[in-house]
Specification:
11 helices; 395 residues; alpha/beta
Amino acid sequence: MDPQVLPDPSQTAAEPPDRSSASIPPPQAPPPPQYSPPPPHYTALPVKRKRGFFSGCLLFLLFLLAGGVVCILLLGMFGQGCLNALDEWSAEGSSFSTAFNKQDFRISRKVIVPAENNAPEQIAVIKVQGVIQNSGGRSLHSAEIIAEELRLASLDHAVVAVILDMDTPGGEVVASDEILHQVLACRNAGKPVVTCMRSLAASGGYFIASGSDWIIANRMTLTGSIGVIIGSYQISGLLEKIGIRPETYRSGVMKDMLSPTRERSTLERDYIQNMVSSTFQEFCQVVANGREQYPTPAAVAAAPFGDGRVLSGAAALTAGLVDQLGYMDDAIAKARELSNAANAAVVSYAYAPSWMDVVFSLKAPDSLKISGVMPPATFALEPGKLYYLYPNACP
């Protein structure tokens, strides 16, 4: 066996490295600081508090109520429209009519003077105010409404007399005649009619008043203006100056009568004047029927006021155009006397617009307008229409 050879400690011991000779890298410089923008400024929103149970229920009920109101309005509009359409399509003699539905006509009775001793009789006061015209819609001041109020008063068993509360410069010939027709219907039904003239009762206003049993005017009322007027424009000279030459093709020489774009022919002038004169004779006949002092139309035309002038109430009394000077109290007393109803109540007898009429103006020819229940702000003569009108008194 070979003897074990032990390693030499001097050879096996690792010598420590020489650190003095090793290369140490130099320390690196720190990186430059990077710019970061500051955080955006903000304001903390307040924390909303949760609504309570009762607040939520109340809000729900409000929404439910609003939705119900809207539904009712829409259903009312739809139902009213259907009823009106059925009424118009079923109108006698026409497949379609623009007349308003008289079946839903509502009358408001506001007591002016209460009855004495519980008397059942009533004296109806009906207003005739503003320019008399058929507005084509359910306006409180349209001739159609006034005529319907008079018609219902003539059929109302409680009404024993009618007072016309008048303040008007007159208006359209046909509209005035429609009101006069219902005034005479009241008289034919045995119900006397008394006219109380306020500031103005001219032309068409006096035309209507002539049909009443008794006329009372204030001493300073403006009345009379018995006559007819028709208006048009003549702009042919202006068009010629600006180089416009209108062309009109017509089937006859009178087809474009009153055209503003050409001069009037002698034939046209004579024809229009004959229309005015004929309508004036109608006016004179109505006055002759109502005033004993002027038994014929010729007597009315020959009177000083036959030229269309206006008269004060005092002058009208002297001329025999009114019966008495006074006030509404005098008109009430006269109506009670003529109807033999000394204890009768005096009521304002007027068309009452429904909330549907006011809000939606279903009967109005134009867009929604509260003016459907208000008088127009201004008035202008429509070319080609005949008027019993005192034009200088129009707004």
